Amino acid sequence: MFIDGFVFASVASALAGTAMARDIGVTSTWNSLISSSTLIGTFFGGLFLGYVTDRLGRRPMFTIDLSVFLGCAVLMFFVTAAWQVFALGLVMGLAVGADYSIGSPLLAEFAPTRKRGNYLGILEILWNVGYVVAYLIGYLVNTNWPDAWHYTLAASTVPAVVCLLLRHGLPESPRWLISKGRHKEAADIVEQDLGVSMDTEDWRDEQAEETRYRELFSPDYLRRTVFTCVFWICIVLPYFALTFFQPTVLRAIGLGGSALAGALLGTFVALVGAATGWFLVDRIGRRTILIWPMFGCALALFLVALGSLLPVWLATACFFGYLFSYGIMSILPGIYPEEVFPTSIRTSGVGLSSAASRIGAALGTFVLPLSLDHLGLSWSMVFMGVVSLIGGVTSLMWAPETNNVVLTRSGHRQADGKGWWVKGALIPQRQG
User: Fold this and answer.
1) What residues form DSSP beta bridges with 421?
2) 1 burial via Cβ count (<10 Å: 0-12, 13-18, 19+)
């Protein structure tokens, strides 16, 4: 997750300078295509490789995808044309999309129920940390060594190498093994590698089930599939667009020469919000830190849309208020999808949701610069605010409370907003 945020910000900060555009001929069209490339790749990686992971297992896939990413990160240093940056971004996005479907579901399947939100939330915080670190590197390069943009693009090589080394020796998910009927192997991992009994969690309640992609669209799971796709889209569509083009937006607000420094500050504001959401997620639950921040984002963007009617400092504060509200709920795409699908289709569901979110994110990053040029700041912010408003309404209606609910309950046969179907019985939410 650190790497995903890092590579996105690396490309954004390289494009924010003028040297890269001058040296390799980045036109406005290529600017939009490059900014969307990793998102487009993530769409296909999540959509297809999540299903492959449910079929083949978590362990082999998380080595393959990161190795591909590492190779592309190295090649980024040698690009000489805009199309090469676009092509490598697509492949890197493909690997990132695969990892969305592998990493967080794997952690969810190991994490203890009471701390699952904190563990998964750390991944989303690290996305923001990766974004901040890469944007800071890009800011320093653009300010002091503007012609060294190759180093900014290729900087993802370092965290990719570290992560690949850290993953060596990780075991397969016991829940996935049980879902495939391999109970003995699962028990060995739980009891020998983890050093706990099979009775410490709901390991024994896992069911052996065939992986069928169409289950995501069955009556039992359709609503949660729609919910995870919609709320994730409504979180990332405005954010990816507004942060990728933060300097442009802040200049439109009126910051002028301080826009690049303001954009760097904005990344820290979002990180503080993410830390706040992480602190609250296992204390007050998922619904609260999704619904109200989503409406808060809509309100903040509608205020920014007032444009010249507000003083520059107030419009800037509202924009940072949006970033803080975003940060609070930004940890939930790494939690909700992992909790509302069963083990047999968990990575398929996470992959489909992440793929849908990348359609939204790519659309936002492609449309926003065009919208700012032709419609101006106000209408662009109104559109982004409406997206957040849709997310708030959808979450208010459909977001379940999965806090302190074991995966074998939270992931099976959701009946309505009051509980879950588990082995033919309705389990009220209050029983956790």
Assistant:
1) 426
2) buried
